[in-house]
Amino acid sequence: MAHFSGKVLALAGGVGGAKLALGLSRILSPDQLTIVVNTGDDETFHGLHVSPDLDTMLYTLAGLSNPETGWGLAGESFRVLEMLNRYGADTWFNLGDMDMATHIRRTQLLREGATLSEVTAELCLKLGVQHRIIPMSDDSVRTFIGTDQGELAMQDYFVRLRCEPTVASVSYMGAEDARPSEGFSHALEEADLVALCPSNPLLSTGPILVLPTVREELARKRSGRLRVAVSPIIGGAAVRGPAARIMTDLGHDATSLGVAKMYQDICDTFVIDEQDAKEAPAIAGLGVKPVTAPTIMNTEEDKVALARIILELGGGFQHDE
Amino acid sequence: MAHFSGKVLALAGGVGGAKLALGLSRILSPDQLTIVVNTGDDETFHGLHVSPDLDTMLYTLAGLSNPETGWGLAGESFRVLEMLNRYGADTWFNLGDMDMATHIRRTQLLREGATLSEVTAELCLKLGVQHRIIPMSDDSVRTFIGTDQGELAMQDYFVRLRCEPTVASVSYMGAEDARPSEGFSHALEEADLVALCPSNPLLSTGPILVLPTVREELARKRSGRLRVAVSPIIGGAAVRGPAARIMTDLGHDATSLGVAKMYQDICDTFVIDEQDAKEAPAIAGLGVKPVTAPTIMNTEEDKVALARIILELGGGFQHDE
Predict the structure, then answer these.
(1) A222: alpha, beta or left, given left = phi > 0 and alpha = psi -120 to 50?
(2) Best residue of A48, A85, A93, A105 to probe chain B, by most B CBs closer than 10 Å
(3) Is the pLDDT of residue B121 over 70?
(4) Interface contact B79-A86, CB threshold 8 A
């Protein structure tokens, strides 16, 4: 069977990132793949530490995620939340019962002194996830959205207000003083291939890239390392989520080309959907190699196929005899 | 309708206490009744503050308790606990999903700086409980059981080890430095009738009575105040729980007389079950007035009937208009 022999670092946000990461995990062995996940969306609900993107990744790789939504767990119930609602708590953030256990456990372990990296490794271990899922940082970084309805915490904007406000700015509170997690730094050094997953460039990969040293390190052209990004925009619209709208609000073009411009200093190859083939010449004009491929990932086969294309770009498929 | 016009303070532990308190609450108006509850059983599970006796009282008065067990909520599910188990957490303490919401909310409010009294008032308000349920103290008191299997926290002994170890001692860690809660002190001053509910005298009323000033205050004979205790022992056995065994282990007689001896300095009248009528003379010999009554409370009618007997001892039934 064909295999890629190098080390891969995937940078991911929520559902789109988890889809590609799942594809990569189906091809790569656990020691080959490190998935670094955005924690700028983390929030405290009911006194519990919720890490939405880490959980989406965890549940996806554990085979437990809700196939309807891409986030949350399949077969969830909402008894805890109903009772919290009865107690007058704000319950606009939809936390299921099994999901609540994740937040309870994470919060307990954090309070006992574990780092978020350690907690995440423990949750992965217990759910049988063998590939490394690592938070971008063990320090607190919080994405805030400046809008026409005021400065909003990420989940406030994203879930409570359903991305309705017009966005004037995005900031990453704490990022300046946050260090990339040890696992992230290590993977960044080792990686033969860095994959920027098809995630929101402002809200998902943005917080990761703004961490001290990360963008600088990724911006270095290094022999033997390929940097591949996958566009989260297809045909001028985000596959899911508010990426296109936010990009427009902030003066970017909500196109694959627009995303390529945001990544041009940190990527060698930019994968766009076949629908956007017409943008390839302009992307090439940025000094980034455009590659067209089917990038919509509905089935597991789609996810594995896109992962395979990315790994092939890395030149790494040999035949295991 | 007949009514008792004075103020009542009920001291209660778990299920037995909640039964009598429910009876009292059906007769007395909210401003007449204060229920002070043992918190020596409180424990931290999964990083959450669990107050088993407060919750039993809360759920009972809210009409939400599980009629099969007397504790917990009717119609509970256990999804959170199952997932916590999957994460490798100790899950021998059976916490339901709706119950978990109580602990999540309580822990959150405590962490935000509220006292346990304030949190309890808030939970009562939200569940529509109008009678005051007050923790014995806002300070931490923890009941420990010295046993042949070592020194055990209360829930360790009671739930995990199912009361199986032989008991050598009972201690109340933190009690010396704990103050009775403000609501408790106030009710203690005001009460025309103090009712010691049929709860375990060592594990349930014990922690309440050992708080500084409480026993001294209750030991004072005060004109116009009646102190009534109800025996938790019937026919030499506890109605429920390990009271009889622990009393025996610690050298007390596991009889109503044995309980009367433990309370003789703080009660005027001691209510024993009709089955124990033969113990009445010996109880009278302690200087405590024995009263026989049906004390097994299965139905709501039983609970109200026993409450009514206690209130009548207080001389307080007059006819309205």
Answers:
(1) beta
(2) A105
(3) yes
(4) no
Neighbouring CB atoms inside 10 A of A33's CB total 25
How distant is the Cα of B104 from the closest Cα of chain A, in angstroms? Answer: 7
- For CA atoms B6, B10, B15, B20, the dihedral sign is negative
What is the tens place of the pLDDT at every residue in B81-113? 999 999 999 999 999 999 999 999 999 999 999
pLDDT digits (tens, 9 = 90+) for B218-273: 999 888 899 999 999 999 888 878 888 999 999 999 999 999 999 999 999 999 99
> Which run of H or of E encompasses B57?
helix B52-61
Would you say B243 and B15 are in contact if contact means Cβ atoms under 8 Å apart?
no
Q: Quick check: helix, strand or coil at residue B49?
A: strand
Whose CA is closest to A3, among A317, A219, A287?
A: A317
Pair B304, B23: CB distance under 8 Å? yes
Looking from the CA of B212 toward its CB, the CA atoms found within 13 Å total: 10
Q: With CA atoms as reference, report the closest residue to B196 among B20, B5, B3, B7.
A: B20
Residue A223's identity, in one-letter code, is S
Confidence of residue A319 (pLDDT cuts 50, 70, 90): very low
Q: What is the percent of chain B where pLDDT is above 70? A: 97
Contact across the interface for A80 and B97, Cβ inside 8 Å: yes
Closest-CA residue of B relative to A85 is B101
A97 vs B48, B97, B111: nearest CB: B97
Please choose, from the candidates B106, B112, B98, the residue with its C-alpha nearest in 3D space to the C-alpha of residue B62. Answer: B98
A166 touches chain B (CB under 8 A): no
Q: Cβ-count burial of A305 within 10 angstroms (0-12 exposed, 13-18 middle, 19+ buried)?
A: middle
Name chain A contacts of B127, Cβ cutoff 8 Å: 86-87
Q: Summarize pLDDT for A175-218 with one digit per residue, the tens.
A: 999 999 999 999 999 999 999 999 999 999 999 999 999 999 99
Query: Which tokens go with B275?
Result: 């089955």
Tokens of B283: 């109880």
Query: In chain B, what residues touch A98 (CB-CB under 8 Å)?
Result: 79-80, 82-83
- Residues of chain A numbered 264-303 and touching chain B (CB < 8 Å): none
Q: Closest approach of chain A CAs to the CA of B83, in angstroms?
A: 6
Residue A320 has a pLDDT of: 45
Among B243, B222, B238, B250, residue whose Cα is nearest residue B296: B238
Which residue in A80, A122, A126 is closest to B101 by CB distance?
A80
The C-alpha atoms of residue A167 and residue A316 are separated, in whole angstroms, by 41
Phi-psi region of A215 (alpha: psi -120 to 50; beta: other; left: phi over 0): alpha
For chains A and B, CB pairs below 8 A equal 96
Q: Is the pLDDT of residue A8 over 90?
A: yes
CB B194 within 8 A of CB B9: yes
Strands (DSSP E) found in chain A? 2-4, 8-12, 33-37, 43-45, 48-50, 132-135, 142-147, 150-153, 167-173, 193-196, 226-230, 233-234, 237-238, 269-273, 289-293, 317-319
Q: What is the pLDDT of residues A271-296, one digit of tens each?
A: 999 999 999 999 999 999 999 999 99
**Chain A contacts of B86, Cβ < 8 Å?**
101, 126-127
Between positions 83 and 112 of B, the ones with CB within 8 A of A are 83-84, 86-89, 97-98, 100-102, 104-105, 107-108, 111-112
Residue that has been written with the tokens 């200093």 in this structure: A265
